[in-house]
């Protein structure tokens, strides 16, 4: 990537403002150690209450003492650096396309503006089952398969071991979120049988015009939950719910950044909301990050949970099929569209 192509340039109102720092406010930092021990302890109820508050006020928080072995994270991060350091020709050998949707890609759009990044996607379930077509009446299913590069040779194993850790942590956090909503601890678990979760390795190269382009344009995550490992460079910004200001997420070594996705917004009938975020780039430093997008099975009908709705609080969304939604999103990330991408508000009951 050399000079900035017009395809990368954000509309003026969406450009990052380098002078705006806003580092005073931080997203909450939560210690997960209590979740590793006694399930009925006082420390657990304090933890559940902190998680509930963070979900409500921010939709974003960081966690420490999360139980992910440091060695597995290091190996994953090193593999990602090595992979992106290979030649363009080598990386293109695992390039994704409209049929093989997993693998390497360097031309993703967010809201029809190109992101300053390259990515490598792999799914957690091998294979992952998704609907064959966008047609609501078509029940045919296809399989997505991972494309593993030859170099570095240990990348596949590093990815698979890392994915195991992400699934474990994801289920643990969903249990805590469930408890914070007054639900049974395992209430969410069945949604993740045949999950469509995937992990993305992100590389944001230095950008000559960080004032015009973004690593990822403003967006909300469509799935259930995102667990993000970011390096020491920083660049992630969250749109603060209280005043709409963009707030930087401070890099904390070995912490994970957790954010509520659109599906939790629907399941919780808007008790918790998914929050807009974006990634700034940097003219000197490259940056790496690794989000785990925790998604349910394709056959999940997403709708407000019965326990969280009532006469006084009727469902705010019509049920929608996650597989069809997901496949529609994936497709639109490839093609520049004239229309808005599929969004949960299309299912909103007014
Ligand atoms: O790289 C980051 O910090 C966040 C990336 C992100 O928001 C995404 O890929 O959805
Ligand atoms: Fe995101």
UniProtKB/TrEMBL annotation:
This is Protein DMR6-LIKE OXYGENASE 2-like. PANTHER family: 2OG-FE(II) OXYGENASE FAMILY, PUTATIVE (AFU_ORTHOLOGUE AFUA_2G00750)-RELATED, OXIDOREDUCTASE, 2OG-FE II OXYGENASE FAMILY PROTEIN. InterPro entries: DIOX_N, IPNS-like_FE2OG_OXY, IPNS-like_sf, Oxoglu/Fe-dep_dioxygenase_dom. Signal peptide: none annotated. Gene3D superfamilies: B-lactam Antibiotic, Isopenicillin N Synthase, Chain. Residues 195-296 form the Fe2OG dioxygenase domain. GO terms for molecular function: dioxygenase activity; metal ion binding. Residues 1-21 are annotated as: Disordered. Keywords: Iron, Metal-binding, Oxidoreductase.
């Amino acid at each position: 990537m050399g000079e900035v192509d017009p395809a990368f340039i954000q509309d003026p109102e969406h450009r990052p403002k380098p002078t705006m720092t806003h580092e005073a406010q931080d997203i909450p930092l939560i210690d997960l150690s209590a979740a590793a021990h006694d399930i009925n302890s006082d420390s657990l109820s304090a933890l559940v209450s902190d998680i509930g508050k963070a979900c409500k006020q921010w939709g974003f928080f960081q966690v420490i003492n999360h139980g992910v072995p440091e060695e597995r994270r290091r190996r994953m991060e090193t593999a990602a650096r090595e992979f992106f350091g290979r030649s363009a020709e080598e990386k293109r050998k695992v390039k994704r396309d409209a049929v093989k949707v997993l693998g390497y890609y360097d031309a993703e759009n967010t809201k029809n503006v190109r992101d300053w990044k390259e990515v490598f996607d792999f799914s957690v379930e091998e294979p992952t089952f998704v609907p064959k077509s966008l047609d609501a009446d078509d029940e045919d299913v296809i399989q997505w398969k991972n494309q593993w590069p030859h170099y570095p040779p240990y990348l596949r194993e590093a990815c698979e071991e890392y994915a195991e850790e992400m699934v474990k942590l994801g289920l643990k956090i969903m249990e805590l979120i469930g408890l914070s909503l007054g639900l049974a601890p395992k209430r969410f678990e069945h949604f993740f049988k045949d999950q469509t979760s995937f992990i993305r390795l992100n590389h944001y190269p230095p950008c000559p015009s960080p004032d015009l382009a973004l690593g990822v344009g403003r967006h909300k995550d469509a799935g259930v939950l995102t667990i993000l490992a970011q390096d020491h460079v920083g660049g992630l910004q969250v749109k603060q719910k209280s005043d709409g200001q963009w707030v930087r997420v401070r890099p904390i070594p070995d912490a994970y950044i957790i954010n509520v996705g659109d599906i939790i917004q629907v399941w919780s009938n808007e008790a918790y909301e998914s929050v807009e975020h974006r990634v700034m780039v940097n003219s000197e430093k490259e940056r790496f990050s690794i989000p785990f997008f925790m998604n349910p099975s394709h056959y999940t009908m997403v709708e407000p949970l019965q326990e969280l709705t009532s006469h006084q609080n009727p469902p705010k969304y019509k049920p929608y099929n996650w597989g069809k939604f997901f496949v529609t999103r994936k497709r639109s990330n490839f093609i520049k569209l004239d229309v808005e991408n599929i969004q949960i508000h299309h299912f909103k009951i007014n």
